[in-house]
Specification:
By secondary structure, this protein is mainly alpha-helical. 59% of the residues lie in helices and 5% in strands. It is built from eleven helices and three strands, in the order E-E-E-H-H-H-H-H-H-H-H-H-H-H. Strand 1 and strand 2 form a beta hairpin. The chain is globular and about 45 Å long. The protein starts with a strand and ends with a helix. The relative contact order is 0.12.
């Protein structure tokens, strides 16, 4: 009911909508809303959803300090997995019942953690998120900005990455999704579960295959 894939026929649908239509007409956050809540958002819903994700994109300073403690040559996925799990230690226990807040926080902070992991690997200072940029544009800004006051990623690259994220947003019950469901069945907090799912994604027979393609 969430995603349908027929690889041999080249068909993929999110909530019954062809992936081609979503890639052409929607943004990643719009597709995220569709996958999570079941329907495409209205403009008002999308604006509110985007604002809430942006509001929750800033990391606790303890997490930033933790990320800086990794070896200079640590793999960015290893840093991402460990930092996502560490987020659970910054959330008050009673706060874990507020599921929507954690949806916004995970979507917002995942891109910040990923950008910081890359910046740490190349020996550059972290960039804080900007509230005036879109989700994908902000991620690329955090990756690439040096000292420019008015730096903006190229719109064509922003759109290309946004479409790439749309296509990768959900692939039925694959290895990492199955891992996520297995962990959440134990009622573990969502950050630990996401970290476990990302660990599955790190494997060379799953998401790691994409890294192998890049290296080739």
């Amino acid at each position: 009911s969430i995603t349908y894939i027929d690889g041999e026929q080249g068909i993929m649908r999110y909530r019954g909508i062809p992936i081609e239509q979503l890639a052409e007409q929607s943004s990643f956050l719009e597709v995220a809303f569709l996958l999570i809540f079941g329907d495409l958002p209205s403009k008002g819903q999308l604006d509110q959803f985007s604002k809430l994700v942006a509001d929750h994109s800033f990391l606790h300073t303890d997490i930033c300090d933790y990320m800086r403690s990794f070896r200079y040559d640590a793999h960015p996925m290893g840093i991402f997995i460990s930092s996502m799990a560490a987020l659970a230690t910054t959330i008050p226990a009673g706060d874990l019942q507020q599921l929507d807040k954690h949806i916004y926080r995970i979507l917002g902070q995942a891109s910040t953690i990923a950008a910081n992991a890359y910046r740490h690997r190349i020996g550059r200072a972290f960039n804080e998120p900007r509230m005036d940029l879109g989700y994908t544009e902000n991620f690329l800004y955090m990756l690439d900005r040096l000292s420019e006051r008015d730096y903006r990623p190229h719109p064509a690259i922003v759109r290309a990455l946004d479409i790439l994220w749309i296509v990768h947003a959900d692939h039925e019950l694959n290895c990492s999704t199955a891992c996520m469901r297995h962990l959440t069945s134990a009622r573990v907090d969502p950050y630990t579960a996401i970290s476990g799912a990302a660990s599955a994604l790190f494997g060379p027979s799953h998401g790691g295959a994409a890294e192998a393609v890049v290296r080739q």
